## 1
Amino acid sequence: MSTQAKSNEKCAQLPGRLVIVGFGSIASAALPVLLQRLDVAPEAVTVLCTPSDDTAIAAENGVRVVREPLTTSNYEAVLQRFVDTGDFLLNLSVGVSSEALVRYCWSRGALYLDTSIEPWGESASDVQRPLSHRSNYALREALLAFRLDKRDGPTALVTQGANPGLISALTKQALSEMAGHHHVDIGRPVSSGDWGRIAQQLGIRAIHVAEQDTQCSAQRKARGEFVNTWSVDALIEEGMQPAELGWGTHERHWPADARRHGFGSDAAIYLTRPGFATRVRSWTPLGGPYHGFLISHGESISIADHLTLRDEGEVVYRPTVHYAYRPCDDALLSIDELAGRGWRAPDRRRILRADIVGGRDELGVLLMGNERGVYWYGSRLSMDDARCLALHNTATTLQVVAGILGGMVWMLEHPRAGIVEPDDIDHRTILDAALPYLGEMAGTYGSWTPLAHRLPLFDEPLDPDDPWQFLNIRVP
């Protein structure tokens, strides 16, 4: 059966109502796909959003819109009118606390999914708070603490978009494919320890979420304008968080600006500088070598944590994991201007959608350290293909929507799984639902290393004996 045919079939039934919090670029792109693929009537869907959100797509699909933004003081009162036992809350907002909504849904017996763990907006922008407390690591640890005695209850799947989310499924699929190439019998891995042993056996030392976005519009970025192919607010928020990465056991050069959190799993560290001011070297098969931003993302922490192996309590294996993001050209210019303005965001913001005239989003995982070379596995989705597969989408938004759909399908099959992360769940269910929307899927070996083709123009700190040291990957 063709991919297009599969994308027209219903793949799960919602037993109750669907409430979508926020209606920015991702929610407006997701709504038509969810109505097409999930068995839910438009009259059973409610959008809760801000007065400024463009809700034309919601109106076009016959969905009720309630313009009441959730705040620390009103969220319980507002949600009581719309969310009850058996309903599904899909949080696609910025600046609304994921932990608060998870706790609320748990108390009401409702299902919950988000694409990132969000704090309340005023908390995220409070520069007086310690850097560690403004990190994705701290947000994740708070939810992990809440779930300790709540394994059996309404499912809450946190951080299930493209990355974080889908990328965890792609990591497991990449490890499975590499194991097949090396004739490694992996059986049917179930636990995190199983996947950690596979990664260790394959010699994986570092993992990048390696993404290059080349989508472009005929209208170039203007001065004083921030342009992006998805949420401007969300990109600025995460780019201004401290850079974070899962810290591998093979690392032998501690960064001068690195800090440990001093609590929790200790699977990740943070740098005392924002992700927008931290560059790393990476590679994708079509885009080739590039410098990307080390943006803080939840998957950098969760993948590293789940692949950790211990022997009598001592960590014996963990790869270094982080995002290496090259956004579209206009977003690059926007970030450069943002830095020049002292990190003060401009008032004018534009999200590229229908005006995109070409390009693609090449999003995948880059696994490094194997003797055969680096292995990239992921989605190569062009703008033209995205338009054919789903209305109101760009290549970037559709990759996120595919992750959301996959997560919702898994949750509806497992409605009493408690609070889970993408790394906890079966990647095959996620990919079965997501693949029709991801364009060309490719797994490719390459000879790239961060030391390759480096002209000796400067006296850079390097470790020539081990290319996979973060010292070599980071751009000084």
## 2
Amino acid sequence: MVAGLKNSDSMENGNGNVFQLIVKQGEPTLVTPAAETEKGLYFLSNLDQNIAVIVRTIYCFKSEEKGSANAGEVIKDALKKVLVHYYPLAGRLTISSEGKLIINCTGEGAVFVEAEANCAMEEIGDITKPDPHTLGKLVYDIPGAKNILEMPPLVAQVTKFKCGGFVLGLCMNHCMFDGIGAMEFVNSWGETARGLPLTIPPFLDRSLLKARNPPKIDYLHQEFAEIEDKSNTGDLYKDEMLHRSFCFGPEMLDKIKRQAMEDGALDKCTTFEALSGFVWRARTKALKMLPDQQTKLLFAVDGRPKFNPSLPKGYFGNGIVLTNSICEAGELLDKPLSFAVGLVQDAIKMVTDGYMRSAIDYFEVSRARPSLASTLLITTWSRLSFHTTDFGWGEPILSGPVVLPEKEVILFLSHGKERKSINVLLGLPASAMEIFQEQMTL
């Protein structure tokens, strides 16, 4: 049963033809766990509190041999079963007596919608760059939800296409898990759909990351520092925003690493370190920051192995911590690439058990959110195996975000069959994007 038209706007499908994507959405239903689950309040750690944003992703599946007529039913049935293990996802966000986010495990269920598109999947065009106008139709937004408390932690939409393929679109609240946790959940869901036991069952107890009593802040947490925008970049962002993706193949990535090492200042560097330094400089230049403008780089480090003891396998929650580096734009651009890459390396080295516990305690005392003024926030999905998700129709031919969560975010996604290339996705004001593009030719 399919009811109501959902946003139809025209777009070019890459062949220069203006194409109208129309998605008809069915009535949303609530999918509750298949068995009785625990009720009551479920603790979210301070690492969960900081990133309570909705992450929208899509997974595109082809189905040459096996028709996808029952895809919605199979995925919905598997969701019921997997929610028994991941029961907090069937609850609702609320505010605790301490004024923090907490989950009320009501068992109400995740929201599920089946939909139909008026075309073949190929006609959508390039989905490797975030495009909220088009890809936004492949995820279901709760009508009238004014804030995250009014949105269930998990909303799923299965859209069937004329070609027999289908897309799974997910809206998940980042406070429920980081990329690794989300990947483990979606892969567990796929295993359940194929009748397999969970390879990595979730470890649900987040009290491992409780703040210390009394809190102990041993580090200067500059990730929360508010930087004055002397360069008026805020005005630039009033222009039209452009979203682009830049693909860095293995040769180009090697070239950037060689460039970072050529002056002998660094003994070694990883692909992530070299690429982060490279795009930080390029974006700083593109935004025409003044030489004395401070610029901050923020990025997430996986704290799971860095905690002492390390977090248990399958930890359900955010095990990532934000680290940072701050310097003046003039210094960043005047010095060689090795300088920027060295700053990235120092920021990674800073992340120890002591630093992460201090960050947890800092939030306990200050309730601060990391400031994004004059900041670049790099988020890396290149090591996440979202492409291995299989609900019985093989691995997705494409997967990725619908939209970048903030204008300051740049996303690294692995790309290609061998996953040796990295797609860099970002949005910039049109004038800045032109300069950024020039910087991308090595």
## 3
Amino acid sequence: MVLFAMISRVSDGMAMSASTDLDMHFELKESKKQAKTLARKANQFPIKCWMRSGNHNIYFIKAVGVCFLAVCEMTYPTVLAFCFLDEIQREFMVTFQSQDVQRAKRPYSFIEFDTFIQKTKQRYNNTRTLTTRINVSEMSEELQNFPPYNINSTELGPLDVGVELKTYKTGGPARKLQPLSWVGLTICMLSAVCALLNFLRCLPFLSFVSIDDEVRSHSMTFFTISVCAYVSLVCFLCYLLLFAVKWRIAMSRTCFAIIIILIYYLNNLRNFWQILFHVMVAMATLHRIAKRQLQEKPPDYNV
């Protein structure tokens, strides 16, 4: 039976689409590694090839700069494997243009094609459901006249595991944060209220054109800078709460520490309840940032 299928770009071996398989069997994982290594070196081999990998056979064909690979059980008929690849190739060429393949910037840009791969794989894994859409006799004759090239595993060289990990780590879509709850939305609104109140407190000082007392002028300038810094940090905390950012937990803790320092510096301009309100809102925002985690990876993430 067909166990795994993948479509890659011949020029650089970048995967365009692949079947979503959750089988963690060691031998199949090794065969997948061989297939992905073969995809990166497909431009070194003829148009139609196959190779042995443990208890599996790997088949691939090339067309218009695209490589189509399949990992099958050793007992699976070769003619059906190439018919399977030929059908996937025809559908892929109808669905996507060669310009689309060349413009693709990230791995698995056409992951939606996995739906067709899965349906086709299911049909070929149950020979009773196969219809006359495939012409086995023509493929058998073609394989007899032009036998596929048998690739020796030594021709691939050692598996470059480092390159493989680097390639497929970025294959999945950008992960998002879990949906924002009503509690998080309320805290975000309270943070915006804190920022607005402090900004309004700062406006009267910005309206002064000149002040005679130089010491007082410096004090008011420093006060204005402190309030603006507080407003900026509160807004940045809201940003960290809403969006997935690298090092968001560390940055939120740093912002919280600076906000506490600024609140302490500005304490003579507020009463106890105002100070408590600002501190509690900052603490609640920090807590929600830590609680709002990334969403779980979907099944087709990093195929």
